[in-house]
Amino acid sequence: MEAKDFNTKEQNTWCPGCSNLGINQAVKEALADLVNEGKIKSKDIAISAGIGCHAKIYDYLNVNGFYGLHGRTIPVALGIKIGNPELTVLGFGGDGDTYAEGMAHFVHNCKHNANMTMLVHNNQTFSLTTGQSTPTSEKGFVGASTPFGEEESPINPMTLALVSGATFVARSYAFDITHLKEIIKKAINHKGFSFVEILQPCIIFHNTIPYFKDHIYKLEGNNTGDIEKAIELSREWDYSFDKDKKVSIGIFYETKKTTLEDQWSQYGKPCYLMERKIDWDKLSKEFK
Amino acid sequence: MKKTILIGGVAGQGSAVTSRFIGKIFCRLGYFVFNYRDYPSLIRGGHNFNILEISDTPVYSQGEKYDIILALDQKTIDLHKDGLKEEGFILGSDKLNSDKLNPIDIGGILKKLGGPQILENDVFIGFLFKYFGIDKDFLLQEAKNEFGNNFEKIQKAIEEGYGISTETEKLEKNGEGNYFISGNEAISIGALSAGIDIYFAYPMTPATGVLHYLAKKEKEYSIIVSQLENEIAVANAALGASFTGAKVMVGSSGGGFALMTEAISLSGISELPLVVYLSQRTGPATGVPTYTSQGDLKFAVNAGHGEFSKIVIAPGDPQESILRTEESFYLATKYRIPVILLGDKHLGELDYSFKELNNSNVSKERFIIDNPSQDYKTYQMTDNGVSPVAVPGQGPVVKATSYEHDEYGNTIEDAEATIKMNDKRMRKVDGIEKEVNNLNPATVYGKGKNLIIGWGSTKGAIVDALKKIEDFRFLQISYIVPFPKEILKQEVENSDRVILIENNMTGLLGGIIREQTGIDIKERILKYDGRPFTAEYIIKKINN
Q: 3-state DSSP helix/strand/coil percent for chain B, to nearest 5?
C-alpha cells in the first residue's frame, strides 16, 4: 500500500503552500506504513474532524470519516471508539476547535484514555474565519478581533495534556513530514489516548515559518517515562515568539494505563455485530 | 376500595423508599397503586412527601384527601392535616402533636431494637399492614425481597409495628399481582427491549433515573452506559457511536437538552439515528428542578438549527413509555433521523401500576446491509429518501458529515446539489407519516359529545377524571411530530365543547394544533405551578 492509495478525487481547497498539505501527506504515509506492517487494516480506519481549515482533511483522505461540528471532534471520535473498539480512530482538530470550543472534551479525554489518537493542527489562529485570536495565540497577536493586540498569554496544551493524564504526548511540525509521520505512527501504535500537537503555520494569517525554522529542535534521548521531566520540558516554550526560546518536537511522555475500553468487561465485539435477544418476561418480572 | 395515604418527612428520613415499598406490596396483593412523589432540590432536610393512591380498580393519579397520613415529622402534620379526611388518622411517633394522631412509642421501640432512626419506617409498615389485616409472613417475605441484606433489624422493626397494631380493615387479595413501575424504568426496559447498545448521559433530574437503571444493568445485558463531561459530549459521542451502527440513546432534562440541540441538527444532516429522551421539569433555566412541567413541547419540536425531519413522541404513562421507546429506536434506525421521546418528572419519577406490561412488536432490526459494495454511497439517492446503510469496518469507505454533501458524503457547496440533498432528507416524511398512522398516534378514551385534548403525563389525571364527568371524551395526542392532523380535525368537528388541558402556561399543544390544522381551541385548563393535575382539580375546572 502506498500513501497515494489514500487519495480522493476531491478538489483540494487549502491555500497553495498550506502547511495542512504536509500533515495530509504525513498521515497518508503513516497509515500506509502501518497497513503494510500489518498493524492496522485500511477498512478499519475511522477519522473524525472538527470544523476549520484542518477539517478539510476529511475530504482528502479515502478512509471512513465523520465530519462533525466545531469543537466536537473528540467526543465524536470517542463515540466511534466506544461503538466499535476494533476501529483505529484518529481525531483531527484545530487549536480553536480543540482548545477553545472543545476544551472540556480535550481535558476529559486525556482522563478517559480511550485508545485513539488526537492530532491537533495548531496554527495559533482561527484561519477559516479569517484570522482571530485562539487560546494559543501569543500575547500581542494582531487579528481581526484583536486589532490592538491580544492582551492575554496563551495556554500551554502540552502541559495541560500531561497534567490531565494523557498517556502519550508528542509534538511535531507540519513541514517536517518525515518526523511527523514517525510521531503519528507511534501515536497510533500507543494503546491509550495519544495527543499529538502539530505546529502548523498559517501562511496567510499567522506566518510563523521563519521563527520555527530557527527555533525548532528535535528531542533526543529525553526520558519519556518521567512525567515531571515531561512537564518541565513542556514549559520550555510558552507559545510566544521570543527570540531566546526553543521549541522542541518529539515524544514528551509515554506511559501505560488502563484504557476506557478495558473498563468494560462486557465488551465483546463491535456493537453492530451484537445480536440482542431480550427475554421480555424476565425483564418485566422485576416490576411485578 | 380506595385508600389515599400520604407519607412525609425530611429528606433522608425514608419517605420515598417506604412509600414505594408499601405501594409494591399493595400491587403484589393485586391492587392498583399510584405513587406520587414530591421533593425539593436538596439531599437532607426540607420536606419530602409521597401520596399513595390505592384502589381495587385502575388508578393513574393522586387524590387530594387522605385516609391516612404517615408522619415522620411534625411538619408533615402541619402541612397536610387539612387534607386528612374526617374519618382519617395520622400515624406517627408519640412525640408529634395532633388530635388525629395514633401515637407510637417509636423512641421506646428503637431503643429496644438498638437500631437507627430509619427503622421507624419499618415499624410503621408493620403497623399499617396489620391494620389492613395482611398476613405477617407474606409481609416479611416481601420485605426480605426488597431490602435483602441488613434484613434482620428491619424484620424486628416490622414485627414490633405489627405487634402493637390491630386489624381494623381486612383487605383481601384482589387477584393476581400487578406491575409497579416508573416512567424512567419503563423507558429503560423499553430501550433494552429495542436492543440499545449504548446509553450516554450527564446527570440531570428528572431524567437521571434512566442513567441509574441502565448502569445497573450494564453487565447483565452487555450494554455500555457512559457518563461524559457534559451534554454536548454526550450527544456528539452518541452520533459517533451511531455512525458505527450502534443503537444509542441519550437523556436529559431541558437544560441539558439545550446543549444537545447542535447534535440534533447534526443528526438531521448526517442522517445518523439518535434517540433523545427529554424529561421535562419546571423551567425556564434551572427553574424548579424537582417539579414537573410540559413547558418544553415547542422546544423539542423546534430543536436544532436548520430544516430537517425529526420525530417527537410523548408517552402518557409507563406502559406507553415502553412501547414508545421501542418505536423511537425503530423509527430512528429505519429512517436515520433524530427521535425525541418527550416525558416529564410526573411520568419519569412516579410509580404506576398495570395488570399487564407489554413490549412492542416493532422491528428490532439494525437495518444495516450485508456485504456493501466498494462503491458504497452513504447518501445514495432513493425514492423514499432513505439510503442503504453500511458502517465502518464492513469494507467500503463510509462517511458521515455535518456539511452539505454529495452521495458519497464529500463536501459540496453548489446550489443544485444543496437542493437535492435537502429534498432527499425531507422525502422521508411521507414514509414516516404512513408508518406512524399505524402506531396509534392519537387515542380516544371514553364516550360523550364533549372533548378534552391533552398529551403526555396529564393522561393519568384526565383518565381518572373522565370516570366522574358526564359526556366527555379524551383525545390523547402521542405523536407530536408527525402530527395526527386528520384525527384531531375529526374529533374536534364531532364535539360540542372542546377543552385543552396542559401542564404549562401558554398552551403549547394548542399552538401546534393551530399551526397544523388552523383550529384554535379557546377553552383551556392550564397549570404551571410545577405540580401535576389531579382528577379533582380537572373536574372542578370543567364544572365551573
A: 40, 20, 40
Q: Does residue B237 sit at the A interface (CB-CB below 8 Å)? A: yes
Selected from 3.40.50.300, 3.30.420.40, 3.40.710.10, 3.40.50.970, the CATH number assigned to the domain covering B180-354 reads 3.40.50.970
- Burial code (b: 16+ CB inside 10 Å, e: under 16) for B476-485 equals bbbbbbbbbb
Sorting pLDDT into bands at 50, 70 and 90, what band is B43?
confident
> What is the C-alpha separation between B373 and A183, in angstroms, rounded?
34
Which residues of chain A from 58 to 97 reach within 8 Å of chain B, CB to CB?
58-59, 62-69, 71-72, 74-84, 86-87
- B2-164: CATH architecture: 3-Layer(aba) Sandwich (3.40)
Average pLDDT over residues A126-142: 96
Quickly count: other Cβ atoms within 10 Å of residue A240's Cβ: 14
Contact B142, B24 (CB under 8 A): yes
CA distance A30 to A184: 6
A67 with B244: Cβ contact below 8 A: no
CA distance B90 to A22: 79
| Phi–psi pair at B492, nearest 5 degrees | -65, -45
Which of A78, A104, A272 lies closest to B366 in CB terms?
Answer: A272
Rg (C-alpha) for chain B, rounded Å, is: 25
Q: Which of B147, B148, B145 is nearest to B121 (CA)?
A: B147
Residue A188, Cα to own-chain centre: how many angstroms?
A: 11
What CATH number does the domain containing A54 carry? 3.40.50.970
DSSP collapsed to 3 states, B433-452: HHHHHCCCCEEEECCCCEEE
In 3D space, the residue among B321, B3, B49 whose CA is nearest the CA of residue B187 turns out to be B321
Contact B400 A66 (CB under 8 A): yes
Instruction: Specify the pTM.
Output: 0.97
Q: What is the DSSP string of B205-232?
A: TTTHHHHHHHHHHTTTTT-EEEE-SSHH
pLDDT in tens, B367-402: 999 999 999 999 999 999 999 999 999 999 999 999
Write out the three cell numbers for A92.
483531527
**Interhelix angle for B231-243 vs B254-270, to 10°?**
30
- The distance from CA B136 to its chain's CA centroid, rounded to whole angstroms, is 34
> Which among A77, A104, A266 is the nearest to B240, CB-wise?
A77
Task: Give burial (CB, 10 Å; 0-12/13-18/19+) of B116.
Answer: exposed
